[in-house]
Amino acid sequence: MRLLTHNMLSSNIKGVTNGFPLLIEAEKFIEKTVDFNPDFLKNMYPKIEWKALVSAATSMGYNQLPEEVEPSMLESEEFLKKFHHALLELHLEEGALICPETGRRFAVIKGIPNMLLHEDEV
């Protein structure tokens, strides 16, 4: 699961008001090379919750993203390459996503998060 996907997931358990961002507990992650596309990154940036991305990348051992981003940074190839690596090349293979409000764990197996709710959580 790419961090791009993680940035768009939240816990939908009944009664949860703050199910985003899901915390990552990584048992195994891998890096997969993806073609660098600066235009894609510039278009995706406004849709990304930056603090959630930084936190997710840090939980997987990647500490190269700045805490805050200014629009001028989107013109820096060095910044875009770091953003690209975190967003598209880091993959959570095994572990869990954890609801920040309830602590409910959603398993990630072979890169696929299981976000199915139990009957009493709907």
Brief characterization of the structure:
Belongs to the TRM112 family. The chain is built from four helices and four strands.
Distance between the termini: 24 Å
Number of domains: 1
- Secondary-structure element sequence? HEHHHEEE
Regions with little confidence, pLDDT below 50 for 5+ residues: none
**CATH class, anyone?**
Mainly Beta
Instruction: Describe the main β-sheet briefly.
Output: 4 strands, antiparallel
Shape field: globular
Proportion in helices = 25-40%
Could you name the CATH topology?
N-terminal domain of TfIIb
CATH architecture: Single Sheet
Strand tally, please? 4
Key attributes of the depicted protein:
122 residues, alpha+beta, N-terminal domain of TfIIb, 4-stranded antiparallel β-sheet, Trm112, Trm112-like
Structure description:
The protein contains four helices and four strands, in the order H-E-H-H-H-E-E-E. The protein has one domain: N-terminal domain of TfIIb (Single Sheet), CATH 2.20.25. The protein starts with a helix and ends in a 9-residue tail after the last strand. Strand 3 (105-109) and strand 4 (112-113) form a beta hairpin. The radius of gyration is 15 Å and the shape is globular. By secondary structure, the chain is α+β, with helices and mostly antiparallel strands. 28% of the residues lie in helices and 20% in strands. A four-stranded antiparallel beta sheet has the order 1-2-3-4. Belongs to the TRM112 family. One of its GO terms (biological process) is rRNA (guanine-N7)-methylation. This is Multifunctional methyltransferase subunit TRM112-like protein.
